[in-house]
């Protein structure tokens, strides 16, 4: 018998939780997942969430066992949903700080901190800034031991715009991007 | 296994794999997973550049085009990534757990024997030995949700039917699944 050529299977992944859609029910964002799937892949949606296939998933179990499994899954879903809500609240209560720091009379750097809460990788973003503004950008730890991106040049406005759009992309509009200024203290005569 | 894994903390170095080493690696992979023979050149094309990423705890990730293909601890057997199993679901030894076990696996637990022997589960006919790397499927689902290593032989799992049957290496949603490389 001739060897059949094996082709790679292309598996669909959920645009919300990243799981194959049949596992969305375990991911804690089921409501959003379903919304996404119904819109993006209605055929897959009806296959997974039709009465028929829902009944089939637990065919082998007794009625009691079935109910127990479903109860536990519902509990888990509720727990995950609370967790997700908590995380979102934490994000909404946080802010990104874009600080303008005067290094000498006419030289400024911009320091961006507070990114980690939002799942933004500072190293990646520093690279993006470096190429976007054709300038130097690096990641250092600030006094609180948190990551801070230092960008050479007076590009606070551009940085603010970019961070804001990045947050919006992540569905986090309404996050505050705060601008501050750090001037070296002038020597004053006393 | 990958509960706390993050690129920032756990990735130490990235190295291009030399083509001679790459060839040897492919031979070893086919030895471990004979069904990969006809597709190994699709997975790791001759002209493709394999990159090995060294991580904490002597873990190596073999990646191509920023996607993890296999992982390996020290020089233990290779473990295919879940996404690779999704692409080639029939090329690896596999087991099926019952629906009740899914949530435990996805929260990072190992698999207990009863989850492998109940009515909704199924085990292969072949008696794979302890340490065999297996893809883990689930009752009522088409795609694999985890990869693990047998903690008992298939025969023992059926006979003993208690305790940990499979140690889970990586599962949907863990640190490796969510790892973004670039
Ligand atoms: Zn989902």
Plain-language structure description:
The complex is a heterodimer of chains A (190) and B (182). By secondary structure, chain A is an alpha+beta fold. Chain A has six helices and five strands, in the order H-H-H-H-E-E-H-E-E-H-E. A five-stranded mixed beta sheet of chain A has the order 3-4-2-1-5, covered by helices on one side. In chain A, helix 1 packs across helix 2. Chain A is elongated, with a radius of gyration of 25 Å. The model of chain A has no long low-confidence stretch (mean pLDDT 83). Chain B is an alpha+beta fold and 182 residues long. In chain B, 26% of the residues lie in helices and 28% in strands. Chain B has helices at residues 7-10, 19-32, 40-43, 82-87, 99-106, 114-117, 154-160; strands at residues 11-16, 51-55, 59-64, 67-73, 79-80, 94-97, 111-112, 133-138, 146-150, 164-171. In chain B, strand 8 (133-138) and strand 9 form a beta hairpin. The two termini of chain B are 22 Å apart. The interface between A and B is medium-sized, with 30 and 33 residues. Bound molecules: zinc ion. Zinc ion (ZN) is lined by residues 14, 16-17, 19, 24, 27, 33 of chain A.
